[in-house]
Write a structure and sequence with these properties.
Order of helices and strands: HEHEHEHHHEEHEHEHEEHHEHHH
Distance between the termini: 76 Å
Protein name: TRAP transporter substrate-binding protein
Shape: globular
Organism: Martelella lutilitoris
Keywords: Signal, Transport
Oligomer: single chain
Number of domains: 1
Subcellular location: Cell envelope
Helix content: 40-55%
Pfam families: DctP
Number of helices: 14
Number of strands: 10
Strand content: 15-25%
Amino acid sequence: MNAFSMDLSHLATGLTLRAKAAAIGASLTIAALSTSALAQDYPEMTLKFGHPYNESHPLAQGAQMFSDIISEKTGGNVDIEVFPNSTIGDARELVESMQIGVVDFALVPTTNVASFYPPLDIFYLPFLFRDSDHAYAVSDGPVGEELYAGLLAETGIRTLGMYESGFRTITTSDKKIEAPEDMQGVKFRVVNNPLNVATFKALGANPTPMPLSEVFTGLQQGTVEGQDNPVGNVKAFGFDKVQDYITLSNHQWAGIMFLADDKMWEDLPEDLQTLFAETALETQTWERAELQKVEQQYLDEMAADGMTVTVLTPEQASAFQEAMEPVWAEYGPKIGEQRIDAVVSTQ
């Protein structure tokens, strides 16, 4: 190749590189303009998202993920401030705050929302759900949709999804729980809901309603001797540090409702409603999978730290189920036998 040819070759190469650079630059400019244009489509706003969970819990992480995704997809125009650890109210207070427009989004257990819309008590009937898949099929299917529509009509609170904290366990400070009679006389923290009080009265315990944010102190000071919560809550809130025994009773499934103030919702543009709804379901899928993944890890860690883990045999679980039958007798007619039958028959 002569010098002239080499010069042409270098020139061609230079032109090609410059053309590529120009093309890349143009693409980046177009992308930036597209993102900017997209962001301009969304109004600037700041919304509040409250929940009672510790930042290390998958529930808290799911809420923060929702906020982060919305911020990214709106170019920062929509800022959702997340307040964990009951910093702007416990579960009941969050529902009340949504009703007066002070809080825009919240994660609240079904049993707390049931205080405002009693049909939701169905989610906490003891031993109602066969497993997690059954609970998901109910909460995501026709039964759930009917309940959420009723909640919206009754309270002005919209349901965007159903996270979970898993099946509830029993923890105690000084005795292993293997049979219903082991609960006799135990000072026991329960969720502030009549159904939960009735559930542990049926076991002979002395149930004491208490907000989740106060449970650790109550256990530490001996105000209560035990409590029931899913594994993730036991670990995230440090209950394993002040309790020596955990029984995997799986007596109730703890669905955690992803709620939105409907007055706020109705003022949103339709594309933002769609984005919120889709992102809530996206993070619901992530949170459920993450919770399932970490539960066994938490149990292993608690056992390694000296906590006694008790897994009930089928016969032992049946004894607890039989002892809790009076709760079904009392609450079945209130919830509606037809609705209960629909849950039981859900596949």
